[in-house]
Design goal:
single chain; 276 residues; alpha/beta; Rossmann fold; two-stranded antiparallel sheet; 12 helices; Peptidase_S33; AB_hydrolase_fold; hydrolase; hydrolase activity
Length: 276
């Protein structure tokens, strides 16, 4: 367990040995589901995974904010004695890893930005995302909508999340199976954490200050996209253009979790970048 400076216990683990990379899972409010991605990086990498504050196996204790999330990530880095490390962030975790790098560039050797949504305001892509989400759900959209708009039991929370997560996979025939695996074991979403951090993000995304900070960032970045992600990949274009040391890998036939649907392509791109 990692103990933060305000006394909150965070679950964390290490897999493998070699050059360090700290993973940041998506959400906000979810837990680490990146074990398969960690196993793909082979025996040259020590992967550090953790559950963010209030999520999964970590203590359910606020406050929930972007600044607090960055401080907790720094606590994980210091707990494992990593003076400098690579970061890999997925979805919301990609944004967290980017913001941490902007604020602590001396601590980050490389950044892998997986399935993020860039630095423009969400209004530029969210309408298309909602359309794509409903289209991907197909016949399941009615049940998803019923669960979305009412107070749910814990069992219904899981069902709702499995349905929503199923839309994140390009291979429709196996989408529910993949989503069920993500939800097993079910560690419960922290909706308060999700609401607080998303509200904060909506006030800061798309600002000139964020773009300027990215333009000045002198850290190598690999952007990894699943070509079939229902979040429009054009959302990431402005980030790619802003970063002076960015490269990009687009994995065909993969959705929001590209390591699941193109494990070989993901491993080749990420391991090649980390060990370059």
């Amino acid at each position: 367990m990692v103990l933060t400076e305000d006394g909150v216990r965070l679950w964390a683990t290490r897999l493998g040995a070699g050059d360090p990379v700290v993973f940041c899972h998506g959400g906000p409010g979810s837990w680490d589901t990146l074990e398969d991605a960690a196993e793909l990086l082979g025996d040259q990498t020590a992967v550090y995974r953790w559950d963010q504050r209030g999520c999964g196996r970590s203590e359910r204790h606020g406050p929930y904010s972007v600044a607090r999330s960055m401080a907790d990530l720094d606590a994980v880095r210091r707990h494992f004695g990593l003076s400098r490390t690579a970061l890999l962030g997925h979805s919301w975790g990609a944004q967290l890893a980017l913001l941490y790098t902007l604020n602590h560039p001396e601590c980050v050797s490389r950044l892998v930005y997986v399935s993020g949504t860039g630095i423009d305001h969400g209004a530029t892509w969210r309408k298309a995302y909602q359309h794509n989400l409903r289209a991907a759900l197909g016949a399941r959209v009615k049940r998803w909508g019923m669960l979305k708009d009412r107070e749910r039991t814990e069992t219904e929370d899981r069902e709702f999340c499995v349905l929503q997560w199923s839309a994140d996979f390009a291979e429709r025939e196996r989408a529910l199976k993949h989503a069920e695996r993500m939800a097993t074991p079910w560690l419960g979403l922290n909706f308060d954490c999700n609401a607080a951090i998303n509200a904060e993000n909506s006030r800061t995304e798309g600002t000139p200050a964020l773009r300027a900070a990215c333009e000045a960032m002198d850290v190598p970045v690999l952007i990894v996209d699943g070509a079939e992600d229902i979040r429009p990949r054009r959302a990431v274009d402005s980030l790619e253009k802003a970063l002076p040391r960015a490269s990009r890998a687009v994995l065909s036939g993969a959705g929001h979790m590209p390591w699941v649907e193109d494990p070989d392509g993901f491993a080749t791109a990420v391991a090649g970048f980390l060990h370059r």
